[in-house]
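Hi R.,

Quick one: here's the 16S rRNA (Guanine(966)-N(2))-methyltransferase RsmD sequence you asked about.
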Amino acid sequence: MRIISGLYKSRKIIAPKNLPVRPTTDMAKESLFNILNNHFYFDDIKVLDLFAGTGNISYEFASRGTEDILCVDQDFGCIKFIKQTAEKFSMPISTIKSDVFKYLEKATLKSDIIFADPPYNFTEEQFSKIPELVFKNELLLENGLLIVEHSKHTDMTKSSHYSYSKSYGGNVFSFFEST
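And here's the predicted structure, written out as tokens:
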């Protein structure tokens, strides 16, 4: 994986092969950040990265100037890799090792952007639980966005606060906003 833009542009980050991850493709990530670039000043926002995996999305935010990033993942190897990478590049990324649903049940930290990249084999019920918990617990700041990455085989259009989706190959980003 590589960082697309910002301070660490073109840096390659090589994750250990044994991590249980499916990193967002560079093409999809670049498209996502083109959308976000029109809505946010990256140096002014708080980001919560759920099912963070390798930290791919968080590194992109950090490279673009975001100073407040929290990654949540239940896999110890993923959290360890994110911590090591963040230290190596002096990125302002904090980590929490936790089941994401348990974290969302108790979370009080509000963010401008919440990005969730759960396993593609989740059921639609599991996918729908993410926006349900985010909005029930009011975890987005004013004008914030929840973005859930999923496969084209998952339909999130009926989930609460659904706004729109963008597809890139087999990847789909569904966007959710407060109404």
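The mean pLDDT is 94.

Cheers,
M.
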